[in-house]
Design goal:
The protein is an alpha/beta fold and 269 residues long. It has one domain: 3-Layer(aba) Sandwich (Rossmann fold). Helices cover 38% and strands 17% of the residues. Strand 1 and strand 2 form a beta hairpin. Helix 2 crosses helix 3. The radius of gyration is 17 Å and the shape is globular. The two termini are 27 Å apart.
Length: 269
């Protein structure tokens, strides 16, 4: 558990790790996941940072609001940072959490010192045909029925299908996924699609002048790995490819992710 308080703030479950006086590092999870998905990298990061993990609305232990599009989610994250009195935060987003992180930079650039995106698909054309178990769980007309009957074993198989190597999935990450409704997950996917269709992520970031680290698994089964280099269009962006790693590097290569993030935060502070 956290060294500090677990709290509810602006319809989001917030967990703090590491010393509060240390430089702040915000972690934003991906579609349908929760802050628990960061657990394998938290100890290394919290040794140097005040780590803040949020469960986005409707995910993990956060209640769903009446509506929550990506700009609204980013606004809620900004409100949490305002409440904590934090500025110039290093923000890290995994998968679609990178879209919320990008929207946060767009809305409140003064809050963000630097940005790291992990497995964040840059544009609609980079999306691959999804692993079969995800299509079974998520695609209508049978998705709602299958989702309602999913077991912990099925959840673990679904996560593992996005990875390129065997992984140890934290029990609390599985438990949080069990609490997410089919309706919430489908809504998240629709919002992600709309956000990318409006304007791709490299284009959004190109004019924002925020230091950027992009980390991609070279064996990502969800997004075309070579699409990571679309971020080369962002001035001074640094792109790191992890050989033999899939879509969830925090589970597959936590030591590498921790080292890359700590190296990045050291240069940006």
């Amino acid at each position: 558990m956290s060294e500090y308080d677990v709290e509810q703030s602006h319809a989001m479950h917030v967990v703090h790790d590491g010393p509060r006086q240390a430089p702040p590092l915000l972690l934003i999870h991906g579609s349908g996941a929760s802050g628990a998905s960061w657990r394998p990298v938290v100890p290394a990061l919290a040794a140097h940072h005040h780590v803040i993990r949020v469960d986005l609305p409707g995910c993990g232990q956060s209640p769903p609001p009446p509506s929550s599009d990506l700009p609204d989610q980013a606004g809620r994250v900004a409100a949490v940072l305002d409440e904590l009195g934090l500025r110039r935060v290093v923000v890290v987003g995994h998968s679609s959490g990178g879209y919320v992180a990008t929207a946060l930079v767009e809305q409140r650039p003064e809050l963000v010192r630097s940005l790291a995106l992990i497995s964040t698909g840059p544009s609609p054309g980079a999306l691959l045909r999804q692993p079969l178990i995800l299509r079974i769980l998520l695609a209508p007309p049978f998705g709602p029925l299958v989702w309602s009957r999913r077991s912990d074993a099925m959840i673990r198989r679904g996560i593992s299908a996005t990875c390129a190597r065997p992984v140890d999935i934290p029990d609390d990450a599985v438990a949080d996924l069990r609490g997410i409704t089919y309706r919430t997950v489908r809504a998240v996917l629709r919002r992600n699609t709309a956000y990318l269709a409006e304007r791709n992520v490299p284009e959004r970031l190109a004019d924002l002048k925020v230091p950027l680290l992009v980390i991609f698994g070279a064996a990502d089964p969800r997004w075309e790995p070579s699409s990571a280099h679309q971020y080369d269009a962002v001035p001074a962006a640094r792109v790191e490819m992890l050989p033999g790693v899939g879509h969830v590097p925090m589970f597959e290569a936590p030591e590498a992710i921790s080292e890359l993030l700590l190296g990045f935060t050291a240069t940006e502070h």
